[in-house]
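Changelog-adjacent note: as of this version, every example in the card shows the full chain rather than a window. The one below runs 552 residues end to end.
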Amino acid sequence: MEYSGTGVGRGIAIGPVAWMSPPMPEPSAAPSLVTAERELERAQDAAAEVARELRRRAGTVDGSGREVLEAQALMLEDPAVDSSVREHLARGVTAERAVFDAFAGYRALLMGMGGYLAERAADLADLSQRVIAVLTHSSPPGVPDPGHPFVLVANDLAPADTATLDLEQVLAVVTLEGGPTSHTAILAREKSLVAIVGADASGLVEGATVIVDAERGRILTDPTAEDVAAATARQEALVAEAAAPITAGRLADGTPMPLLANLGSPDGAAEAVRLGAEGVGLFRTEFLFLDAEAAPTVEAQRDAYERLLAAFPGRKVVVRVLDAGADKPLAFLGGAHEENPALGLRGIRALRRAEPVLRDQLDALAGAAARSSAKVEVMAPMIATVEEADWFAAVARESGLPVAGVMIEVPAAALLARRMLGVVDFASIGTNDLTQYTMAADRLLGGVAELQDPWHPAVLRLVREVGEAGAALGKPVGICGEAAADPLLAVVLVGLGATSLSMSPSALAGVRAQLARVTAAQAREIAAAALDADDAATARRAARAAADAFLG
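Full-length structure tokens:
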């Protein structure tokens, strides 16, 4: 039997299934036998213990894993959460019940807000379980330990578990929920872990041997000896591919195709260089602003940018200005509660409301660029109109940053790409949000994961619009969404007009190897096959069939 889902990367694994332990039962609503003051003390002590453990785990990992765990610890220390626990304790319940109700309330609120905050809602559910486990002297739900390597299957994985998985034991991860941009997918990609998310795999049996094929997004049960032999051969080929000498990205006919890194802080720069990144296609600056009550100073920002640029002398580094707003609320940006923040004041819209924050960021970046040989470019997120693009480019150039571009994440921007590129120097397509807005499917909700697929022909046609506009005007068009990390989709994106690809550094080797096997003309034919499909699954199959016809 075969199950399907959204694969992360190209890896393949063979092993027995081990299911994640089920959630703890809901605490009793019976009255407490001690005072509310004593119950509050218990709740606060338990929360502090969990926060300490999360920070201990954060110290053992790098990159997004550390950032996520530190953010979880901060959630436990949020005064609003403490206040909510106090309110529930006033009803005379136990600390366990008060914690459960407080976190459940916040989780429901954030789920209703969608976007970034909906993702945080899943984190809150895990935190609640961990605090209640301390209060009840129980073990929280966690990764099983069957005593041998295994394929981990779960409804979903908490960041605290995903970030610290023992890769000697966990051969692959399969989750029933989540999409390609969930925490599980992001962290799995960073760790080069074989993973399939949003899988229809509730029927997997504990202990049964399965083949998890991330490249094809399938889980095969009861594999034959031939299936196992083919999977083993694929594993060996991937190992050889990863060990191959690092070269500049190019197609089989010699066409250059720069392969760049997506980074969320300067800490990952050295590893990106080691893995062959030829520069940075997307540097997210949110790490400087999130969880801050005031915008960081120009000096603090400049120091962070200088650390990044020092790792890429003479190379291109594309920095995205702050992508925040109602769905990533920052007090110093202002703004009121919005019912649908994904469609509200985010990205450039929020920055125009708080222009001094943007100008400080640009001044800091210009100062860092002046002290570096890196080729610094700056771009704005969530551009929807030509006027926004023109305004941002003017502000960037006033600040001493001559190369200014825009993110293409909104269908309106893709459809107006020629006019957009008429007022800026380059475009970078953010496939995660472009897919979300094209398909009207929240990229963080597992229930619509099948729609949140950059392979959909509607998304690919918008990419083609931008690629053709770039070619007509002689302007670069990069891809910086996670779609570029899929080697076959990377070929399609090149065939649609992309002139550079940026991705998680761990994906560079696979994409580099795949691109080196096709010519520009073949990439265009493979892209044409995908465009001629009715849905994402058909587009993927058509592209694979076209690629196989060329490559054998």
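Structural remarks: The chain has three domains: 2-21+142-225, 36-135, 255-551.
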